[in-house]
Design brief:
This protein is α/β, with parallel strands linked by helices. About 40% of the residues lie in helices and about 15% in strands.
């Protein structure tokens, strides 16, 4: 019988995709839900309530071979206190892993973040071998969860994805797509820093890879598409998907920096003009093969994402 995988965060951006992608990879899927919800035909469900205070875990995890924990509190612009991230991303994760250990679950796959390892940019190529140095409460909460998992007697693996793109995404990539859809020339032609992205299809392939890998693993893997692009190249790919020219202006980086800093958007400048390149060779050595290149993925995103 195919392995049974329990998925948290199943109604979220990544979780919804996993409910359909994992059965295609040969897994049975059970969604762990806060409340009853409609699920695709490929998945069953178990209601456990609030992930921070779950109920009925013994029944929900009966027969489960592995958990994919994608539920998380993600960054927003409201100045959320660090305690909120710690409660949801760290404490709830470790408590769920303890419950999995008691239920005899064989592997716990934690969807962490590249922000557990670095800030919004990095001067050197990031691999798992580098020292983790998060720069936000969100990143610190993810790293603390990984450290908590390492203290438990369960085979665990943390995936540290970079920014994930697919229809339905929010945040920075949704904003870049909105700009690419506009008729205006964009001032990104002089940007030379490359940044790694991750197609959602490639992320689900990485999850399937670590679920199927022989154990024990008990480590973290960075995850990114193979090719890193400049922001201008990203816009050009999106506009190709729309059947349009790149429309990029070579505005000096110093002017872009001054404008964004003056408007209080210094971190936005880092995301645009500073590098964040990730080398996922360790995950590839485990058998992961990204199915989508970033350029092709962005072209398809522009064609398929609702306006």
């Amino acid at each position: 019988m195919a392995p049974l995988i329990a998925v948290t965060g199943a109604t979220g951006f990544i979780g919804r995709h996993l409910l359909q992608a994992l059965p295609a990879q040969g897994f049975r899927v059970r969604a762990l839900l806060r409340r009853p919800a409609e699920l695709p035909a490929e998945a069953t469900g178990a209601v456990i309530g609030d992930i921070a205070r779950p109920q009925n875990m013994a029944a929900a995890l009966e027969g489960v071979d592995a958990i994919v924990h994608s539920a998380a509190l993600t960054p927003d612009l409201t100045g959320r206190p660090a305690d909120d991230y710690r409660a949801m991303n760290t404490e709830a994760t470790v408590a769920l892993a303890r419950a999995a250990q008691r239920a005899g679950v064989k592997r716990f796959v934690f969807l962490s973040s590249i922000r557990a390892q670095a800030g919004p940019s990095a001067a050197h190529v990031l691999t798992e071998a580098g020292t983790a140095a998060p720069e936000s409460a969100y990143g610190e909460s993810k790293l603390a969860a990984e450290q908590g998992l390492a203290t438990l007697d369960i085979d665990w693996v943390a995936l540290r994805p970079v920014l994930v793109y697919a229809p339905g995404m929010r945040g920075n990539m949704a904003e870049l797509l909105r700009l690419a859809r506009s008729s205006w020339p964009l001032p990104f032609g002089s940007l030379t820093a490359r940044r790694s992205l991750l197609a959602l299809d490639n992320l689900s392939g990485a999850v399937a890879t670590v679920l199927a890998a022989p154990g024990p693993l008990r480590c973290a893997f960075v995850v990114a598409d193979r090719d890193a692009l400049t922001v201008g190249e990203m816009v050009a790919a999106l506009r190709r998907g729309l059947g349009r020219r790149p429309g990029l202006l070579p505005v000096p980086v110093s002017l872009l920096r001054a404008a964004l800093h003056a408007s209080g958007r210094a971190e936005a400048f880092r995301r645009l003009a500073e590098p964040l390149v990730v080398d996922a060779a360790a995950l590839a050595a485990l058998g992961w093969t990204p199915a989508v290149t970033t350029a092709a993925g962005l072209e398809r995103l522009a064609r398929d994402a609702p306006a």
